[in-house]
Amino acid sequence: MAYPQELINEVLDYLDSGHSVREAERRFGVGHESAARWRRLRDGNLRANRPHPVKCPQDTVRLALGLAYGGHGFGLDEVAVMVGVSAPTISNWKRRYVEGGHMDIPEIDPDEIKHLSPDGRARMTDEELEEYIHKLELKAAVLEGTVKVLKAEGIDDLSNDEKAAIVDALPASFTVTEALPEVGLSSSSHYYCKAKPERPDRHGRARAAIREEFALVGGKRGYRYIRQRLREREDPIVVSGKTVRRLMAEEGCRVSYAKKRRSYSSYAGEISAAPDNLVARDFHAEAPNEKWLTDITQFSIPAGKVYLSPVIDCFDGMPVAWSIGESPNAELANSMLEEACGQLADGEHPVCHSDRGCHYRWPGWIGICAERGIVRSMSRKGCSPDNSACEGFFGRLKNEFFYDRDWEGVTTEDFIGQLEQYMRYYRDERIKESLGWMSPMQYRKSLGLAA
């Protein structure tokens, strides 16, 4: 089916404004394949099967246009082979840059054409070929040096100091004199850069402190925590968060996050009536013992499996109580709830939110809640975001304590002891920004809520 050119132009304008071919199909009633084909034809089939066109250096564009349209007698296909792009790409460059008024047809030096043309290279002497190959090797060495020394994409945006570093890093087969023009640096600038005294690293003390603090937490805390620890040292180091993040990256202090593994599920069907979701993803509380969250998580080590059942207070994220065992039975959950209820003052009746696991639907759990005045709340079936604050606690715990550690040879008893120690650390010592860089226990003491 033939479409009028006016319609094709409207579709192309619509696509250029950021809309997809599917949106164009719905708006103009044309097939999305036709719309995509029109765009490819207009753009000269620039990598039609890729999401982004290839970006070429401006020198390549200049050379291709000069060879193809400068009266040198080369066809588009020949020029495409010589510069390493497709013929439609060169046509598109002409339409974009020349016809668009951004540049005139460039003039190309005959010597440059001689080196590029296969026929011209065939007529070169052995000495000329060796010189030509040497220049190509120099270009390759400069690019390789750019990547090795500076991890940069190209030479154009580098400072003089960086260009001088590239020249000094080149193999001995290339002289400084021939390398300087290749990187766009004058001889005087090169020697000035070499003669300058090296400035001391003004962040040297911060770097050492960052490495020390990062190692103390086992590489498990990010730049905000490290920045705060720098400020709390006996000899405080005050630097911005961005600076800490950059220095951590330069020093290789990167927090590793393990891939999410299959989580333990205690769901055993609808064995009793489920209460309403009273929390409704509002995990904020104005005072302690207003909202509790609970769940059970599993740790699998070579010696066996260990289960943790905590109660988390929404007021400050404190683990109010917890139990650890080798079996996810009713006793694990019930003993934890009894311990948490033992900390309640008269008149305190928190909402205790959980998932729909069987532990929270058995008579023992329901009886404790009724006796102690605990208001039960449950997530919707299979909806983990309804208890995301508790899931987040488990995520932090496992990233900092469990993942990326070798548990070979550790018995379940030893593991339980280490996990118990971490839980006390989390409650009493682990500082966080949301509490003014205090631990949950320190925060409560500062408010007079704990002795």
UniProtKB/TrEMBL annotation:
Alphabetical list of PROSITE patterns matching this protein: INTEGRASE
**Domain named Integrase catalytic: which ranges?**
284-448
Top-level taxon: Bacteria
What Gene Ontology terms describe what this protein does at the molecular function level?
nucleic acid binding
Database matches in InterPro entries: Integrase_cat-core, RNaseH-like_sf, RNaseH_sf, Transpos_IS3, Transposase_14, Transposase_IS3/IS150/IS904
Query: What range does the record give for the signal peptide?
Result: none
One Pfam entry for this protein is rve
Task: Output the GO biological process annotations, alphabetical, semicolon-separated.
Answer: DNA integration
Q: What is this protein called?
A: Integrase core domain protein
Query: Which organism is this entry from?
Result: Collinsella intestinalis
